[in-house]
Amino acid sequence: MNVNELRELTPEELDEKIYELKTQLFELRRKKAVGQLEHGDEVRRLRKTIAKAETVKRQRALNIAK
To answer: Computed over its alpha carbons, how large is the radius of gyration of the chain?
Structure first.
């Protein structure tokens, strides 16, 4: 998911998306610990997506237009 797609979401939808992404990250980390994760780069990709979403949320809180 790119930043423009995240910016189009309402604040409530953005919060839901962040929660959903963090849940997915938890599951991926659990699979990695057990040894069931085939593609380790998924964890990195998901962490970056969460960071993008958190950045958009923070920009809105500070009223920074991008």
So the answer is: 13
